[in-house]
Amino acid sequence: MTPRAALPQSLVDTLSRLLPRGGFTVEYADLLSYGYDNSRLEAMAQGVVWARSEIDVIAIVRACREHRVPLIARGQGTNTTGATVPVHGGIVLSLERMNRILEIDPDNRAAVVEPGVLNGDLQEALKQHGLFWPPDPTSAAFSSIGGNLACNAGGPRAVKYGACRDNVLALNAVAGTGELLICGARTTKGATGYDLTRFLVGSEGTLAVITQATLKLTPLPETVRTLRALYSDVSSAAQAVARLMRQPATPCALEFMDAEALRLARDIGGAAIPPAGALLMIEVDGSEASIHSAVDAVTRAASGDGLLALDSAGDAAEVQKLWAARKALSPALRSIAPKKINEDVVVPVSRLPDLVVAVADISRRSGIPIVTFGHAGNGNLHVNLMFDPEQPMQATMAPRALAEVFDRVIALGGTLSGEHGIGITKRQFMSKAISPQTLAMMHAIKAQFDPDGIMNPGKLLP
Question: Is residue 133 scored above 90 in pLDDT?
Answer without folding.
Answer: yes
